[in-house]
Amino acid sequence: MAVRALSRHDQEFLRRITGKIIKRLKDSHSAVVGAALIVSVDLVEIQDSARNEVQITVNEILRSMWSRNYEKSNQRLLLKVLRALHTVGVSKESLGVVFEIDRSTSTSHDHVLLRETFLLLSNLTTDILISPQTSSRLSPVHDIRPLLTSRDPNDQHLFLSCLECVDPILWAGTRPDIPAVLEEWEVERVMQLLDSSDNLIRRKTLRILDRIDSNIVASYYAHSLQTIPSGLNIRDKNEYVTRLLEVLEIQAGEDGELYARLVKDLFGKSDAALLGEDPFVLENAVEMVLLHIRNAGTSFRIGCATAMVTFMAELETHLGPTLMVIIPALASEYSGRLSIQPKVVLRGLANRLSFCPPAVQDASLLAMLRIGADCDEVPLEVTTTVTELGQFSRRHIRRADFLDPSAVTSS
After folding, report:
1. How many domains does one find in the chain?
2. Do residues 70 and 106 share a domain?
3. Residue finishing a domain among 49, 67, 87
C-alpha cells in the first residue's frame, strides 16, 4: 500500500513489484489479499501487460472463496474481489459464480453483495450475459423481484438500482427470443414508482423506462402536462412542476437547447392553469432548473442559456414570473459569453419590467446592472424605462440604488 501511494508520483514503483503483487494475491491471510486486490487494480491501469495474470488470479480467488461455503465474515474480502473484477475483467468460468452470488444474496438479504454483483454485471456486454441467462433460463432480474413488492423505500431503491445495471433486452421482452422477466402486475408496480414521494426513486424509474422505450416517458409526461390540477396552492404547485422537470431532464439528455424549449413549454402550461389567480414564482422549480444547468456540460449550459435569453428578447413570447427569474439569472451569469448582444438582452429585460411582480422586477434590475457592464453604452430606452419604473413603484424598488440611470451606465 505504501508503494501504491508512491506510485501516484512515479508509476515505476508499482511496476517493480508486479511479481510480489501476484504473489500476495495468493496469500493465506485475508488482510494481505485485500491489500493486494486494491493495488492490483492500479497495476493493470498503468501496466496492461499485467492484466492477463492478474485477471486469472483474481477470478481464481472468486471461485475459491465461493466454493468454500462462503461465510458472512468473508463479506469484506468478497466485496473487494468483486470490485477488482470491475477493472481486471470477469472470465467466462467465473460468470456462473457471479450469477450464483446474485441468487444467493437475494434470498439471504445480503444487499451489499447483491448490489455489487449487479454493478459488476453492468460492465459486461449484453452478448456475454445472454448465454448464461439462456442456459439457466433465469435472468439476474428474476432474483430481485421480491424487492419490488416491498413497501420499504430502501428496498424499492435497491430494486431499481439493480435493474438499472441490466440491459432491458435481458428482461423487458423487447426481443422476441428473450422473454420478459416481469409479469404484467409487476410492470404496473414499476410504473407506480413514478409517483413515489422519493425523488431518487422517481428519477431512477424514469431512466429505466426511457431505456426500454422513450415513448413511455413521453406519454407519461404528455398526460401529466395536460392534467395539471387547477387551484393548487404554491407548495403543491411547486411539487407538481418539479416532478415534471425531472421528466424533462431525462427527455432532453445532453441537448441544452431542447431542455430550454421544454422548460418554456412546461411553465407556459403551468401558468395557463393559474388563469384568474395572482401569478407567483415557483422557487423550488427555479432552483432545480438553475442547478441542472450549472451541473451540466459546457455545451449544454451555453446552448440552454442562449435559447432562454433568446426567448426573453422575443417580445411575442409569453414568459411567466418563474421564467422571468430563471432567465435574468442566466443572462447575468453568462453575460458576454452568448451570441446575443448585451444591448439586446437589456432591451428584452426592460420591455418586460412593467409586466412583472415586484420580486421579479428586483431580480431583473440586478441582472440588468451586471449586463450593463458589458455594454459600451446603455440604450436610452432602457434607462428611461428604469426611471419610469422608479416613479411608479413601491418604496423598496424606488429606493434601490440600481434605479439610478447613471449607476446602470457606469457599472
Report:
1. 2
2. no
3. 87
Q: Count Cβ atoms within 10 A of the Cβ of residue 353 and give its class: 0-12 exposed, 13-18 middle, 19 or more buried.
A: buried
In this structure, the answer to whether residues 28 and 120 fall within a common structural domain is no
pTM: 0.84
Residue 346 lies in a domain: no
Asked if residue 96 belongs to a domain, the reply is yes
Q: What is the pLDDT of residues 23-46, one digit of tens each?
A: 999 999 999 999 999 999 999 999
The pLDDT of residue 269:
85
- 209, three cell numbers: 423506462
pLDDT of the residue at 278: 62
Q: Are residues 111 and 145 in the same domain?
A: yes
Domain annotation covers residue 325: no
Name the packing angle between helices 342-352 and 358-372 (round to 10°). Answer: 160
With a cut of 70, list the residues of the chain below it in pLDDT: 68-70, 132-138, 273-279, 390-411
137: alpha, beta or left, given left = phi > 0 and alpha = psi -120 to 50? left
Q: Report yes or no on 132 lying in a domain.
A: yes
Domain match, 94 and 81 both? no
Let me know whether 81 and 104 are in one domain.
no
Instruction: Give the domain range for residue 61.
Output: 1-87
Residue 157 and residue 61 in one domain: no
Are residues 185 and 200 part of one domain? yes
Q: What is the pLDDT of residue 409?
A: 44
Q: Are residues 96 and 157 in the same domain?
A: yes
Output the CA–CA distances (angstroms, integers) from residue 274 to 17, 80, 269, in the order listed.
70, 55, 9
Q: 276-306 in b/e burial notation, b at 16+ Cβ within 10 A?
A: eeeebbbebbbebbeebbeebeeebbbbbbb
